Fold each of these.
Amino acid sequence: MARKAQTDSGDAAANPGRLKQIALTYKMTRRSDPKVGLVVAGVGILVFGVLLGIGFLIGHPVYLGILGFVLAFLAMAIVFGRRAERAAFGQMEGQPGAAAAVLQNVGRGWTTTPAVAMNRSQDVVHRAVGKAGVVLVAEGNPNRVRALLAAEKKRMARIVVDVPVHDIVVGDGEGQVPLKKVRTTMLKYPRVLSGPQVTAANDRLRAMGDMMSNMPLPKGPMPKGMRMPRGGKMR
C-alpha cells in the first residue's frame, strides 16, 4: 500500500510537470506561429467529424466516434509536434551554439563533443561520433569554418585513420545544410562501424584532447545551451 501511495504521488507530481512543459512549448511556438492553436484544433475537429460522419453512415456512430476521438488526438499531437519543432529551429537559426543543441538530440548511439575547434570570431566546429563514423559540424562564416574543418580533419587524421569522417557546414547557401536538416543528414550516412569500433574511436579522440584546451577563446560568456567538452579547460 505504501509503495502504491508513493507511485500515485509520483505520478501526480509528474503530470503537472508534463502539462507545464506542454504549456511552455505552446507559448514558445505561438510566438513565431500565431495560428498554431487554430490549426491544431481544426485538425482535431476535422478528423473527429469525418470519422463520426462515417459512423452515422454505416450505423456505428459510437464506435467510430470513439475511434475518431483517439485519432483526432493523435493527429493534433503530430501536427503540434511538427509545428513546435519548426518554430524551435526558426528561433535557433543563426544563434551561436545552435548546431550543438541539435547534435545533443540526434539520438542514441551518437557521442557529441561541442566546440572541438573555435576561433576568435566564434566560428565553431562540433564533433559527433557514431556508427557512421565521425561527423564534424561547423557553424559560422562559410569561408572561415572551412579552414577550421580542414585543420580539425588534419589533426584527427593521425588518430582515427580507419574511421570515415564527414563534414557539414550549417547554413542556407550552396553546399551547406540548413539547421533543421542536420539531424536527418547525419542519420542518412551509412553505418560502417560496429559498437566496439565506435567506442575505440571515441576513446582515441578523447585522448587526443580538444583544441579548446590550448587555444585562446573569444571574450564574453559561452552561448546559452553550450556545454564545455569533457576535459576542456578555459585559460
Note: The longest helix spans residues 61-92.
Amino acid sequence: MQPKTSSLADRPDMLERVAGMADSWPEFVIQDLVGAAHFPRIAAELPEYVLFAEDERGEVVASAYSVPFALGTRGGELPANGWDTVLIWAFSDLRRGVRPDTVSAISISVAPHAQGRGLSAVMLSAMRDNARARGFREVVAPVRPNAKHLEPHTPIEEYVHRVRPDGLPQDPWLRVHARAGATIDSVAPASMTVAASLAHWRRWTGLPFDTEGDIEVPGGLVPVRCEPARGYAVYVEPNVWMRHAL
C-alpha cells in the first residue's frame, strides 16, 4: 500500500510527530552547528517544504525536508560547502525577501523499522513533485552516499564515479537519485563540519580518541582528525551534488 504523503503546511498538527520520528543518523552528524541552528527553522518558517509519509496505521514513517534558495544570482555554481552553505543561503534569502529559483534537498529520513520498503524513493519523488508544483524547474541535492562509510579512506572523487554494469551508480543512495533522473554535478568536499572536544567525541562514538591522526568512526564517510595535544577533533564530511531537472 502506497503511504500517504502530506506537508506540514497542510497538517501543522503533525509537527511534533514528524520531528519526533526515530531515524538512523549517527549522533555526531546532528552536531553540525549550521544544521543545529537552521534545520529546526525549516518546519517553523518553511512548513510547505517539509513532507512526511504515514503508514496505514497513521504512523509517521518517513520525512523529507527541502529549502528554496536563489542559485542564479550566485552564478549558478553549487557550493563546495554544500549542505551548510545551502541552509545559510536559504534563510538569508528568506530574510531579505530574495526570490528563490531552485529547491535544495536537505534530508530524507526513514524510520528504522520501515527501511527497506522503498520509502526513500517515494519521498524523493514527493519532494520533486512539491517543487514542481511550486513553479521550480530544478531540485539539487547534497547527497550523503549511504555506503561510503564502509570505506572511509577511499577518496570521494573516486567513490562517486563507480558504476554498475547497467551504468547506474554503485552507491545505493546515489542510485536512487539517478533512477529519479538526477545527474552528478560535483563533489562538495566540505559539506558539513563537526568540530568538538575529545570528551564530546568520546561520548558520541564510545571511542577513546587518544591517538593523534585519522580516526574511523561508525557512520563516518571519512575519518575524523584527532588532535589530542590540542584537545579537539574535527570531522569534515564530503557530499555529492546531484541535479534533478523537473
Note: The beta strands are 4-7, 50-54, 60-69, 102-110, 138-143, 183-197, 213-215, 224-227, 232-245.
Amino acid sequence: MTGRPFSHLRRPQWVPMKRISRISRRATSPLCAAVVLLVPALTSASLANADDGPGPLGVTAVAADTAQARKVGALFDADRRSSLAGGHFCTASVVYSPHRNLIVTAAHCLNGSKDGDLIFAPGYRDGRAPYGVWKVRRAFLPDGWAKGQHEDSDVAFAVVANKGGKGVEDAVGGNPFVTGMATGATAVTVTGYPSTREAPVSCTNRPTVHSRTQQRIDCPGLSGGTSGSPWVNGDKAVVGILGGHEKGGSTDDISYSVVFGAEAAELYRDATG
C-alpha cells in the first residue's frame, strides 16, 4: 500500500446521499430540516459533560469551544478562502505526527481532489477561522480506496502546509491515532460539521460491531458534512473516522467507521514518513 498524491486520485461517478454536501445537501428535505432544528435545542452543558467522558449518551448538541473541539475543523474548496461561510463539505481533525502537519478524514472526502484544491480550518465557527486556514498539500489514501473505493478503506490522511514555520498541530494540538482497539471498548465522542450549520456538533455513545471491519454508532443529527469526523475515546485518541459503510451511513441517526487495523496503521506510517 502506498500513499498517493492528489493527481493519482479518480473522481467517483456517483456518491450516496448521506455525507458529501457538495453533491447533495440532505437538509433540504423536510425530515432533515426537523433534525437540524432539534440540535440547537439541546444544551451546551449536556455536551460539556459528554466531552469530559461520563455524561448523556446518544445526545447531539452544539460542541463547546474547548481545546479538544479546536482540533476538529472543516474542509473547504480552496476558492472559498475569502468567503468561508456555508462552504464546508467534510470534517477533518489534527493527529500527532513528527512534522506536526497531519490531519485525518474519510477517504471519500479527498477522492477526486488535486494538490492545492482544498483548505482546512480547525475550530471553524460562524464563518471565521480563529486558528487560521491551512492549505491541504498532499493526500494519502490506502490502496483499497484508491484502486476500488472499498468501504473498508474509507480513511485518509493529508499533509497541510506550514505557516510561518509552524504546523497546524502547533496551532491547536492533536490527538494520537490508534489502531487495533476493540469496538466498544469505551464510549467515543464524535465531533463534526453538518453542512447546514456553521458550528460543530458533538455526540458521545458506545460504538457497536456492524461487521468484522466496520463499527457503528447511534447519534442523531450527524448529517451531510460530518464525514471525516473523528471518534475520540476517553484517552483522547482517534479510534474511528465517520465514513466506511455507505460512506458513513444512509441516515442521519446511525453512522459508521472503518475498524482501524493493519491497513490504517500502514497508511499512517506512510503519511508520517
Note: DSSP finds six helices and 14 strands in the chain.
